Amino acid sequence: MKHTDIKELFDNEKDFGGKDITICGWVKSNRSSRNVGFLSVGDGTYFSPLQVVYEEGMEDYESISKLLSGAAVSCEGIFTLTPDGRQPFELSAKKINVLGECDNTYPLQKKRHTFEYLRTISHLRPRANTFQAVFRIRSLTAMAIHEYFQNLGFVYVHTPIITGSDAEGAGEMFSVTTLPAGEADYANDFFGHHVSLTVSGQLYGETYATAFKKIYTFGPTFRAENSNTARHAAEFWMIEPEIAFADLADDMDYAEGMIKYIIDYVMKNAPAELEFLNERIDTGLLERLNHVKSSDFERITYTKAVELLTPHSDEFKYKLSWGVELQTEHERYLTERIFKKPVFVTDYPMDVKAFYMKQNPDGKTVAAVDCLVPGVGEIIGGSQREDDLDKLLARMNTLGMDISEYEYYLDLRRFGTVPHSGFGLGFERILMYLTGMSNIRDVIPFPRTAGSCEL
User: Fold this and answer.
1) Could you count the other beta carbons within 10 Å of the beta carbon of residue 206?
2) What pTM was computed for the model?
3) What are the C-alpha distances in Å from 413 to residues 99, 248, 354, 362, 397?
C-alpha cells in the first residue's frame, strides 16, 4: 500500500503542505459531533499521533464516527498546515478506509491500566504510550551501543548461547537437553555432555580480543536465579567489550565514554519520548541524564569507599565492613550524597569477585571495577583480566573449578598472553536508567522471570 509515514510528516511538514497524501495507522482516539469528527491516528513511526479531521458528507461518516480505539485505518486527504491552531498541521480527510475493526473488548480503550496488568497482555502493550516510548528508546539504545564501539574500531562478535562452561562460576545456569525428564545420562544427550544457556559471553569474547584487539558482544544471556525483584530477569541482554593491551584505567575510560554516548544519542533521537517519560514516569529523569552526561566520573578504591561510608553506618540497613560486598544503598549513598555524580569503585576484595579478575600485588584485592550511577547504583561491572597462567590456575583450584572445562581459556594465557580488560553492561539496566522505569519487566518486550513464561 502506497502511503506516507507519520514521522516523515513531522520531520518535513512544510514539504507536504497542501498536498494529497495517504497515511495508515491505528486509531488512538475518536471524537465526533453531528458535523465533524477528529481521529487521532498513530502508525508507530513517531511518538505523537496525527490528527485526522473528517466531516459530515464524507462517505461512511456515520460508521467512521463510531470507530473505537485500536481500529486500523487508511486515511486519504489534504495535508493542511495550521500554524495558528493547537497543532501545527492536520489531515483533512476525503476518504477513510477501515482496514481492521476493533470492538469494545480491546483492552487498551480509554481507561488507564497498571503496569502489572499490561504485563499480562505483553502482545498488546507496545501500543500504549508508555511502552511506545520505552521500546523506541530500547531500539535507539542498541543502535547507540553499536555506533559507539564501531566508531572506535571494535569488532562485533556473536558468542554462543549454548555453552559447556560457567563464565561466572556461580552455577545458576539453565540446562539444555533433549533427554526425557529425570534422565541425566548426558553421554547420551545431543551434545554428548552437559551444556547450559550462557550467563555471559565474556570468556568467548576474550578469545577474539586476542586476535582483533578490540571486540564487543551484544546478545541474550540467561540466569536461573530464583529471584522476583524488580531488577532481575531470567533472560536479559548483555554488552561485553574486551580490549587487549588495556589496563583497568583504560577499561573505565571506555565505560564512561559509552554511558555518555548512549545518553547523548537517545536525548538527540527521542526527545518527545523522554519528555513524556519525564512528565509521566520520573520527573527527575531529564535532569539526571543531563547531569550524568556532563559529569566527570569519580574514581575511588573499594577501601576508600568503605572508609567514606563507615561514619554513616547508622543510616544503612546492611552494615558495612571491609570484605563485604557493597549493597545498593551504599552505592547510591556514594553517588547521591557524597559525590553527587557517577562513581567508579575499584580494587575489590578478591573473595567477593570472579575467578578471572587480575590479582593485585597486595594479595587481597583484584583489579575489579563497578560503575555506580545516581538513582540506581551499580550499572556496569568490569575488571582487568588475570593474564598470569599460574595465578589463574591457582585461583581456579582454590575455588574447586573443573579445569578441563576451561582449557581453551587457559590457552589464551599460554599463547601470547597480554594485559587485557573488559566490562559488562546489562542492557535492561541501562534502559531502566534511560526511561525511569522501575521494573525490569517493563523494558523487556516479553519478560521471562521466575514462574513466568506465558507468551
Assistant:
1) 21
2) 0.94
3) 62, 18, 17, 22, 16
